[in-house]
Amino acid sequence: MRQAGRSLPEYRALKDRYTILELCRQPDLAVEVTLQPVRRLGVDAAILFSDIVVPLQGMGISLEIEAGVGPVIEHPIRAEDQVSSLRVLQPDPDVDYVLEAIKLLRKELRVPLIGFAGAPFTLASYLIEGGSSKNHTRTKAMMLGEPRAWDALMEVLSQSVLLYLRAQVEAGAQALQLFDSWVGHVAPATYERHVMPWVKKVFDGLRDLQVPTIHFGIVTGELLAHMSRTGADVMGVDWRVPLDEARRRIPQAMPVQGNLDPALCLAPWEVLAREATDVLERGGGRGHIFNLGHGVLPETDPGVLAALVELVHSWKVPV
Amino acid sequence: MRQAGRSLPEYRALKDRYTILELCRQPDLAVEVTLQPVRRLGVDAAILFSDIVVPLQGMGISLEIEAGVGPVIEHPIRAEDQVSSLRVLQPDPDVDYVLEAIKLLRKELRVPLIGFAGAPFTLASYLIEGGSSKNHTRTKAMMLGEPRAWDALMEVLSQSVLLYLRAQVEAGAQALQLFDSWVGHVAPATYERHVMPWVKKVFDGLRDLQVPTIHFGIVTGELLAHMSRTGADVMGVDWRVPLDEARRRIPQAMPVQGNLDPALCLAPWEVLAREATDVLERGGGRGHIFNLGHGVLPETDPGVLAALVELVHSWKVPV
User: Fold this and answer.
1) In angstroms, how far is CA A148 from the centroid of its own chain?
2) Distance, in angstroms, between B24 CA and closest chain A CA?
3) Least CB-packed of A1, A20, A34, B78 within 10 Å?
4) What is the pLDDT of residue B22?
5) Above 90 in pLDDT, residue A4?
């Protein structure tokens, strides 16, 4: 469950003392925040605490994460000469603190550790828009109107993401998740032409490491067919798409991850239990990693999340 | 093309002098704003200028539209006793200025006039959240956790929407569009249980008027099968779903409306022309109303929109 920490008082206590980027940059703190939901919830894997803009900062891009706003890029990338001044991430030393956190975590954890990165499109959108965006207008304008600048940007980002994920595995990450958070704003044909080749490049470059890879983005129902053919091992599914329908859109044998609507964790238990069971049934019992279909909402009761984990663990595949 | 006005200097000049609600409430101004894109763009129909919160204000709910924020409801509806204090809209006199604008428009227009309303779920979300919302968390919490309050709210809203749309037709509207702007945040099974019956009620209540009805919401790819069975005549399609794929999800003979990505209007003309032609081809030439797959982006060049209308008019169905 991504962002499970946001619902925990022990995480909020740390957030009162440190910024998100401070939590990411101090290995002992990143370790503590990664462990918090694992301790509380009884989940079967840990996901590294970090932020998807961390490798951008590592590349020397000046940015902040403003509370209630999200990432703010000091000098948004809007022109080809700005793109050509970008350099590829060198994980060590650029983000050595992430690698250090992973090494420490492997000593602490009894469940597998999932590393992650934002996908090239999503990182490009932050860089071009200067932060979060409603319509990703400037991003699409560059993608469609200045393909040379776009390709150069995607080249440096996909190389950086690949090196970043490889370094995470070398430090000890046992699985990887690639989040294309904003790619659901792209129509399928545009995705195929301007985004998919760069995602493929990342997954192709990871194959020799032989760690399982998961690919996910929200509002990606129409992109599942394409995203599932980028080389990822597991397809994460947004809560909007029933898992049995998702399976019809992707290769038959591909495992799926998901996809309970996070808002259901705020509903009465009997509603939550009914809908979680529906997700398990549609998942079909095999090749299914149960998860929420998006991040945990901050107002969620951690006790409910723990009960949900128990429900999933005690569920039996119907014979 | 919805919200085409936002791209027009003559609209922005009015926006400098009046608030959106003032433009909605003064019939001569609402008429002028409705006519502006029709004059410029050569479109085949006009869509009434108004705001979807107008009937809420007519019901006596205190609200503002804040620039850059959207609607702000003074006292959000969070408890059952607040719901029971709501009254059903009486279009005349509650929103008589809308009806007056429609009457004036019919005298001016040489193309058909489309009236519209927000659908019950979307209006409920504004009332419960107190404005726009990222996750519609409180709305879902009421829908799933307090079904009695939810049903009572949907009852008063669907009755109000129905009376509002009927009054628009009686005033002269020649077609109707029902926007469920935020319903794409609801999973299909939840939609079927808690939203669909109320939408059906609206369309059922309009049938005897024999005006064509269009139903639309963004991010509704997974809901198309359900939304197309609510009684609407035409299914509006978000730009994310290729129209040929949309047709596979809805009844075969149902006309579709859409669905060029509005961001493409900011791309070079050859890209826009290629993608618009792709939409026309996927639409199949019959039973297709060409439109954008969401509102016009404010930064759009009106000259490009006019050229797009010309492209659509000159397109020939391949034999």
Assistant:
1) 27
2) 25
3) B78
4) 97
5) no
CA of A66 vs chain B CAs: smallest distance (Å): 17
For the segment A240-268, the average pLDDT, to the nearest whole number, is 95
- pLDDT of amino acid B68: 84
Task: Give the tens place of pLDDT for each residue, A21-67.
Answer: 999 999 999 999 999 999 999 999 999 999 999 999 999 999 999 98
pLDDT-flagged residues of chain B (< 70): none
Q: Which two tokens stand for residue B143?
A: 């829908």
Task: Let me know: does A159 contact A105? Beta carbons within 8 Å.
Answer: no
Sort out which chain B residues have CB atoms less than 8 A from A135's CB and list them.
262-263, 297
pLDDT for A35: 97
Q: In this predicted structure, what is the pLDDT of residue A252?
A: 87
> What was the pLDDT predicted at A303?
96
Query: CA of B244, closest CA in chain A: separation in Å?
Result: 12
Give the nearest partner residue to A263 out of B135, B264, B266, using CB atoms.
B135
Tell me the C-alpha distance between B228 and B221, whole Å.
11
Rounded to the nearest angstrom, the minimum Cα separation between A243 and chain B is: 11
Strands ordered across the beta sheet of B213-216: B46-47, B113-118, B175-179, B213-216, B234-236, B256-260, B288-292
pLDDT at A319 over 80: no
pLDDT value of residue B21: 96
Q: What is the pLDDT of residue B67?
A: 86
**Chain A residues with CB-CB distance to B135 below 8 A:** 262-263, 297
* Contacts for B300 with CB less than 8 Å, ≥ 6 apart: B7, B262, B265, B266
- Give dist(CA A276, CA A281) in Å, integer: 9
Instruction: Say yes or no for a CB contact (<8 Å) between B184 and A221.
Output: no
- Radius of gyration of the CA atoms of chain A, in A: 19
Interface confidence, given as ipTM, is 0.91
- Chain B hits for A141, CB-CB cut-off 8 Å, are 263, 266-267
Amino acid (1-letter code) at residue A123: L
Could you tell me the pLDDT band of residue A280, with boundaries at 50, 70 and 90? very high
Q: Are B83 and B152 in contact (CB under 8 A)?
A: yes
Give the pTM: 0.94
pLDDT for position B14: 95
C-alpha–C-alpha distance, residues A194 and A225, integer Å: 16
Nearest to A292 by CA among A229, A240, A224: A240
The model's pLDDT over A165-206, given as tens digits with 9 standing for 90+, comes to: 999 999 999 999 999 999 999 999 999 999 999 999 999 999
Which residues from A are below 8 Å from B267, CB to CB?
Answer: 140-141, 144-145
In order of A154, B45, B105, the CA distances from B98 in angstroms are 49, 18, 10
From the candidate CATH numbers 3.40.50.12160, 3.30.540.10, 3.40.50.920, 3.20.20.210, the one assigned to the domain spanning B9-260: 3.20.20.210
Measured CB to CB, residues of chain B less than 8 Å from chain A are 135-137, 140-141, 144-145, 184, 187-190, 219, 221-222, 239-242, 245, 261-264, 266-268, 271, 275, 278, 297, 299
- Sheet strands side by side (includes A234-236): A46-47, A113-118, A175-179, A213-216, A234-236, A256-260, A288-292
How many interchain CB pairs under 8 A, A with B? 92
Residues of A with CB under 8 A from a CB of B: 135-137, 140-141, 144-145, 184, 187-190, 219, 221-222, 239-242, 245, 261-264, 266-268, 271, 275, 278, 297, 299
